[in-house]
Fold this protein.
Amino acid sequence: MPDRMATGKEMFITCRTGDGKVMRTEDPNVLSRALEDKNGLVWVDLTVQSDEDAWVLRDVFHFHELTIEDCVSPRIDPAKVDDYGNYLFIIVQAVTEYRFGEEMEPVEVDFYLGPNYVVSCRREPVPAIPQFRERCRRDESLLSQPPDRLLHGLLDAIVDEYLPIVDKVDDDIDSLESLILRRPETSLLQHILTVKRNALRLRRATIPQRDIMNRLSRNEFPQLIRPEMAMYYRDVYDHLVRIEYLVEALRDIADGALNTYLSVVSNRVNAVMKVLTAAATVFLPLTLISGIYGMNFESNQFPSFDASWGFAAVVTFMIALAVSLLAFFRWRNWI
């Protein structure tokens, strides 16, 4: 086993003994001894990107192979909670960052909740987890509670990352609406569709997690989550309900921005077509006159064809006709 330990990915172990002493280490050799302390608390945070990285889940904690498969799989599973008797397996989705014009990619975070331990694992970095670990470093009282309180702190930190993302998406939609009214370029359409897809991904991530928090707050797992913790998980549930409401509003605003873009583009096309139609209407009689005088007939069949002032008279008449048509269109507010 030492060779396998040496090949593991990033792993952080936080142990609190029954007498309140806290120890932080990256040495997995302390796990077995720490887990024997039933009055203590063990928090293992690790990165799992391959089957070899999951050795601690398999050989130390002896978790079910189906849960390990979910942790190792590169696909992002929907949020869920499974009861395996002496521990809970929970999947949530974290939102790590958002950039304008780019689609968000949620990160799956897997949790194991046992009688005296919490295990968190993910494939990609999730800023909320090291931030919470730093909070525990500054305030060790956060580790003085049972594992269900530690799990709540981690879930709450992950959910709190959603609100800044939602606010950024909202600000980007406002910016897009301003740009649409000023200069509706084709590139804006791609940005609007990207925002709509991001709002949909946020909705797909929040709704299953809302249901999970609802289950955790209903005393459905009394062997691992104390009844007095219901209000804490209910608070996370309320946050997710609020986020879901904001995400639904984002989808409506994004739909409105898309409709605004299509309306502005349609109005601009109509304005261009109106100008082109007016220009064609003005030049149509002028083309007719020039076409008639350009026909190959005897000169004596056209009035003033041989006169020195004939060309000037025809051109003057054509200009007067064009100005008259433009004035008429202007008077009718057609242009």
Summary: Residues 1-8 have pLDDT under 50 and may be disordered. The longest strand covers residues 41-47. DSSP finds ten helices and seven strands in the chain. Residues 289 and 314 are 8 Å apart (CA to CA).
